[in-house]
């Protein structure tokens, strides 16, 4: 399914301070974008705007996929992994993924859930409460939560946070696959991630 993510002249102001402005780009299927910039430059803020978690001060974000009216929503079209995204600690990983599907009006698929938890290397702990997980394991759950509805757009904010070597390998495989079949947006200053993208937005130059 072809999909397009378009940002047009995005601007964000906090407490009268311009965080960034004049951010425009268009991404289609098979494309990736790297968002870079110093700490405080607005990388996470831009990802939140693309995910429809925050509203821009000015500008627009549009998703087009050719789906029927009501389906071209951020909830169905976007998956996100970020340090500020919280899982439900009193639920197991498996229950968190059931919830991720239910909140999108999708029927839970136990086999698909178990396969994805195996993919993120959590199959042996899938029924344990998330509050018992290490920070790295919680990051793996975030990847599963972002991917369970097979979104055409994947937004990653600091994608390697808290991951060990095997987790980093897992994340890089997911990034490569997403870049091939859909749209990938990565917010990080890790230059090794540039191999997965076609475009770069440096927020240091946007104020």
Which terms summarize this structure?
single chain, 207 residues, alpha/beta, Rossmann fold, 5-stranded parallel sheet, 26% strand, globular
What does this 3D model show about the protein?
By secondary structure, the protein is of the alpha/beta class. The chain is 30% helix and 26% strand. The protein has a single domain, classed as Rossmann fold, CATH 3.40.50. The strands form two sheets. The protein has a five-stranded parallel β-sheet. Helix 3 packs across helix 4 and helix 3 packs parallel to helix 5.
Could you tell me the radius of gyration in angstroms? 17 Å
Number of strands: 8
Helicity range of the residues? 25-40%
Q: H/E order of the elements?
A: EEEHEHEHHHEHEE
Please mark out the parts with pLDDT under 50 across 5 or more consecutive residues, or reply none: none
CATH class: Alpha Beta
* Overall CATH architecture: 3-Layer(aba) Sandwich
Could you tell me the CATH topology label.
Rossmann fold
Shape: globular
As laid out across the biggest beta sheet, the strand order is: 5-6-7-3-8
Fraction in beta strands: 25-35%
The CATH superfamily name is P-loop containing nucleotide triphosphate hydrolases
Alpha-carbon distance between the termini? Answer: 36 Å
- Please indicate the count of domains: 1
Chain-averaged pLDDT = 92
Largest sheet: 5 strands, parallel
């Amino acid at each position: 399914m072809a999909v397009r993510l378009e940002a047009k002249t995005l601007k964000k102001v906090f407490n009268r301070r311009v965080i960034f402005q004049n951010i425009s780009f268009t991404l289609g299927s098979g494309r990736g974008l790297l968002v870079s910039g110093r700490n405080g430059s607005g990388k996470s803020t831009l990802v939140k705007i693309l995910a429809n978690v925050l509203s821009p001060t000015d500008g627009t974000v549009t998703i087009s996929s050719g789906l029927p009216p009501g389906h071209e929503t951020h909830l169905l079209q976007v998956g996100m992994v970020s340090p500020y995204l919280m899982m439900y600690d009193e639920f197991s990983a498996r229950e968190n993924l059931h919830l991720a599907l239910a909140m999108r009006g999708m029927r839970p698929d136990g086999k698909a859930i178990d396969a994805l938890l195996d993919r993120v290397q959590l199959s042996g702990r899938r029924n344990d409460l998330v509050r018992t997980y290490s920070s790295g394991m919680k990051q793996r759950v975030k990847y599963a939560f972002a991917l369970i509805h097979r979104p055409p757009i994947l937004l990653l904010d600091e994608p390697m946070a808290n991951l060990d070597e095997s987790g980093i390998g897992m994340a890089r495989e997911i990034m490569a696959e997403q870049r091939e079949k859909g749209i990938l947006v990565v917010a990080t200053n890790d230059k090794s991630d540039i191999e997965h993208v076609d475009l770069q937005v440096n927020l240091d130059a946007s104020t």
